[in-house]
Amino acid sequence: MFAVIYHGPGNKAWEEVPDPQIIDDTDAIVRVDAVTICGTDLHILKGDVPAVTDGRILGHEAVGTVERVGAGVKNVKVGDHVLVSCITACGACRYCREGMYGQCLGGGGWILGHKINGTQAEKVRVPFADTSTYLVPEGVSDEEVLMLADILPTGYEVGVLNGAVRPGDTVAVVGSGPIGLAAIMGAKLFSPAHVVAIDLADSRLEAAKRFGADVVVNASKEDAVAVVKELTGGLGADTAIEAVGVPASFEQCAELIRPGGRVANVGVHGAPASLHLEDLWIKNVTITTGLVDTYSTPTLLRLVTSRQLESAKFVTHHFALEQFMEAYDVFARAAETSALKVVLQRS
User: Fold this and answer.
1) CA-CA distance, 245 to 295, in Å (whole number)?
2) Which Pfam families match (predicted)?
């Protein structure tokens, strides 16, 4: 089969490699029908994730068809059309029992495209198939469900739920890429008074409006803190969601937040950020971090199936599976191409 192979920072290739095989009796082999690229993959290619080693197949999001299952798989069968979650869960360790699947101690967590071969391939081995895949509902397209592999549960759990968004809140989202847009979409479920999108690119701010932001701020031209304070009587945001993963965006969230407010960091950081405790200690500010656990995936599947979440809005570009190098180029130049999510599908 062919797959996207990582060969160190800045170096990847679409290469022929051996087909995956069942290793453990809880594995499934899934033929990849639709797959996407994540901002985290770009962080890997920058060298921000040193656990990813030369020769690894990238990717942690896919929709596909089950081709083989191990003897221990009970609920997934050959021919099932499934969502492959970005998080793998053993289902039995302490953290899995607490719903913190991202911290799985039994061999799961974020392993696809990280510690084991991932989904940007013609086939993928999925460990713990019973607890790491979801049946695709009838009447829902592959690309709609594909958005639930990572970005929607990440924005919802790590941004909206960790940030404790409530009705009437002012929510500031720093970064209007796919994760920021997912946070905006998730925040709207809680009827906030204002959702403020902050970015440096006008094209992404236009996308933020389409996803539900009622105020947009180009931080290269306007003072985002001043805008948010004017909206809130001088207080600041109730929740500030960091959706970029660079020091400046985290530090801006700390400036945007009101006393008693909540900063929810979602972005993947590859460098240290300053934490200004000299300003924050007296303000009763809560700061949360997190890797997505995907405990919300069943809820989000129901919302997509009932058309309360329009997940297909994320998809801006389509490619054939063998066009991965072109897709990476378009996705990496999002400021020029206006790419949000690219979808690659089997021809």
Assistant:
1) 23
2) ADH_N (PF08240), ADH_zinc_N (PF00107)
